[in-house]
Design brief:
Layout: E1 2-9, E2 12-18, E3 28-37, H1 40-48, E4 57-58, E5 62-70, E6 82-85, E7 88-89, H2 95-98, E8 109-110, E9 122-126, E10 130-132, H3 139-142, H4 145-158, E11 166-169, H5 173-183, E12 190-193, H6 197-207, E13 210-211, H7 216-223, E14 230-233, H8 238-247, E15 253-256, H9 269-274, E16 277-280, H10 288-305, E17 306-310, H11 315-323, E18 331-335
Parallel strand pairs: 11-12, 11-14, 12-13, 14-15, 15-16, 17-18
Antiparallel strand pairs: 1-2, 1-4, 3-5, 3-9, 3-18, 5-6, 6-10, 7-8
Helix pairs in contact: 4-5, 4-10, 5-6, 5-10
Bound molecules: zinc ion (ZN) (2 copies).
Amino acid sequence: MMRAARLYAVNDIRVDTVPLPPAPPSGWVRLKVEAAGICGSDLTNFRAGLWITRSPSTAGHEFVATVTELGPDVSGLVAGDRVVTDSRMTCGACTACRTARPQLCAALGYVGEVCDGGFAEETILPARLLHKIPPGLRREIAAMAEPLAVALHTIRRLRVGPDDPILIAGCGTIGGFVALILSKTHRAPILVADNNGERARLVAAVAGARIVSLTLDSVAEALGDVPLLHAVEATGSIAAFEALTTSVAGGGAVALVGIFHDTMKLNPNLLVDRELSFIGCQAFSDELPDAIGLLPSLTPELDRLIDRRITLEEVPETYERLIAGRAQGLKTIILL
Ligand SMILES: [Zn+2]
Ligand SMILES: [Zn+2]
């Protein structure tokens, strides 16, 4: 038997004692989970049930684990390998999958939702989803590979260069990681905004960013005459998105990576008259290996961005704490 945090329904997650996963079928492996991160999308699913397709489902798509058993026909992995998982369950057959755009798979689902995930002592997953990590990497750092890939994908979709000022709305995990990645190479100012002053100050300190509010005046004060042509919406708030559309200069682009709960009315002339571009960013494309490669050099900063290290038993109360906005950092890590 083992312990697992399982989502049953909206507002209903429980830590249960359940049987160990079965022997891995062909192409799958058994994993002993070392650490897992709680994602904003886990909380969204808990609150709104957007992606509940089976119940109960062991949650968790951001985790690092050790391979303990190979199913038939697995190559490239051996017992003892430490791996992080690609969070996406793709069909491999649709047009998007066949043209190397798996994040746009017509049947896209996520680990922890369409199959059991990593908020458990053990799990089984297809070997094709697993990526080995560099030796010696600490488990709580390795557990952040997947959201780092999302941040990397957002930066690449936005096509922001090292001399382009950028404004990031939202200092949660993805917004904070975007600022952190850019801080290593960026020469132009990195501006950040968040209603939570503590989080904004943490990200600003870690990434050398400047805190602004989402207004033209505040941005102009930070940049002077230099136009702001690149922004990231990482809050999921319509108000923040609307503020961003007026904070960027004509010709600017806003990358959207936050998950929204509301719809909005949009005047299309905003895009026509001011030549604005809105760029949707869904998870990541092929950035996970690059994100894993960044982990060793980003370890000191990632360490500072960890909210708390918790046990599996603390998952339900931690969901409540995070939803109430009482995070002290960007990422809560479950140690198993
Ligand atoms: Zn995630
Ligand atoms: Zn597909």
